[in-house]
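[09:14] KT: can someone run the structure on this one? pasting the chain below
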Amino acid sequence: MVAYFIIPNYIKRPLCLLIVFLFLNVNYTYAQNNKLDSLSTVLFQLQRNDNFDASNHEHINLLNAIGHEYYFKNIDSLYFYTKKAQELSRKSNYAEGTIMALIGLSHYEAYNGENDKAIQSLEKAYNLAKKIENQKLKIRALNPLGILHYDIGNHAEALKAYLKAIEIATDTNDLLNLSFIQENVAHLYLSQKDYQQSLSLYKKVQDINHQLGNDVYTAQSSSNIADLYVKLKDFENAKVYIDSSIVIFEEKEIDDWLAYSYMVKGDMYLRQNRPKLALYWYDKALTLHEGLNDDRSKAQLLNSLSEAYFKLFNYVQAEENAIASLEIGTRLSLLDDSKKSNQLLYEINKKNNKADIALKYHEVFKLLSDSISRKENLNSLGILKTKLEFEKQQKDAQLANEKVKARQNIYFYMALIALAILALIIFLLRKQSKARKIFNKELRLKTKALEKREEELSGINATKDKLFSIIGHDLRGPINALASVLNMLKDDEISQEEFLEFTPKVKNDVDAISFTLNNLLSWGRTQMTGSKTEASSFDIHELVTENIKLLQETAKNKNISITNTTPMKAFVWADINQIDVVIRNLLSNAIKFSHPKSTITVNATKEGDFLKVAIKDKGVGMSPEILDQVFSSKNATLVTTYGTSNEKGTGLGLSLCKEMVNNNGGEIFVTSKLNEGSIFYFTVPLRENNTK
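[09:31] RB: done, structure tokens below
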């Protein structure tokens, strides 16, 4: 997570020193406007933690953050926190923390006039960022390095640092840093009095700031543009830009930039020879400086105040401010500000008729002017040389890139040719594969057709075998028995009275034959040609009652009672003939497998759009193995099954029931416990639109 702390400097110094802390594995997000007290609170809470580790990266990042909050508040506190962060970073081998600490220390060293040490600190920071290949941290070291070189008058080195940073920011599309560095370069050209180039760069910076959508950055650039217009004596544009900046800085309470904007507005009025108005804005800027530790910018402001007082003939105040500015300029080696201070003191003492003192200041002024003039010439040449070298490096890099690109193009075209050949091979293989797939598909279809035909033939054979088995086992026996009795009666082997004794047995056999033939015919239709389902509305209660009457005598022979508890007028939508077969078979089975003197119950309940019919018996029940295949026509046994009183059956009834229930859109299932009985359930639709 990254938090940005932006420390702006004034236009008389290179602008927009961007200090960015890289927080790795930190649970706190520090926005640009975080206050010192909130950071200190977080640090206090962290240090009170039982598991606190001073070398933890989170702790080091906090120390660096607090140090940079002291940039313009307390320079000694800045040194304390950044130095501590540097020591802990070195112990824990935390490169990012070391880099940010070095940047902070460079500010402290520059503030105390130790410019060489400050430059060394920033170069160490840059080399370390380069070593760990961290592009953002490279920019954050280069930008203040350029600013510092500018401050000591080494403009060529400043431009070199800026151009490196711009190249990195452009490659990484880092618009924020690009904005700040371009603005510093614009000021560099401004110092060379190349106003058009400077203004062009400022306009580009404004475009970038609009993309970033940050009104504070836009206001910073606007205040710099205003200062440029002041130098061009375009006071109308200067006023528009500086007033818009002041509104933003006052609203956001950004005191350092606000002090600078007040000073620019004072410069505008001073250039218009309106010293009273200029003094008003200078005083507002000086008041803000009481809370800032920015002596470099203060030196410039004090000179401006001196000049305003001089134009108002207040030589005492003019001299005091010029001397104060000269003290700062001498301490920090600020040649431009020292030159201006000596010039003002020369003019003031001349007006006060202090010729000797005035002459001394004038001599220093001339020395500084010559020195600055020579340095400006050298800087101009250095800047030009640096720019040409950079452009040459860029051209060389571009040529190298073009060569690499040319090689890449050759490889690309070779790869295209290889891909084309490969594509042709793949096309031919796919074509062959497609033909093979079509052939295999046709083969599979024919194989499936043969398998289906074989299955049909097997089914027909099974049907034939089952049919002959039923005829042989379940029909031939009762018919032969009946024929034998009739032959005995015909041959007078038994009397009519004796024949009558066989009548109940004969009737049972005839009923069994009739029931078997009905099932056989129904099953035969479903197996051979399929049965047509013709649904209509009928009362299930009546149908159950009719079947109970039909089977009443069979049940009575086993002393079994059948109870119909289905609701009256329970109308359903189904094929009445098929449901009739279902009920008759299930009742017949219930009688067949029930123990004598037991009860069979038929009831029905409504479940959604269906009526669920249940036929419950108290008989032999079924094992789990039999339950799994009880409704399967394929697994129906060819051997006659016998009931509790040795009744015969075909093994077709339940599979026939399943087919007919399914034909009517219902379901059939059974629950059973061995030696306790079974309950057969089936469902039928209540309305027409449920029929499948």
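[09:33] KT: thanks! The two ends are 64 Å apart (CA to CA).
[09:34] RB: yep, looked fine to me
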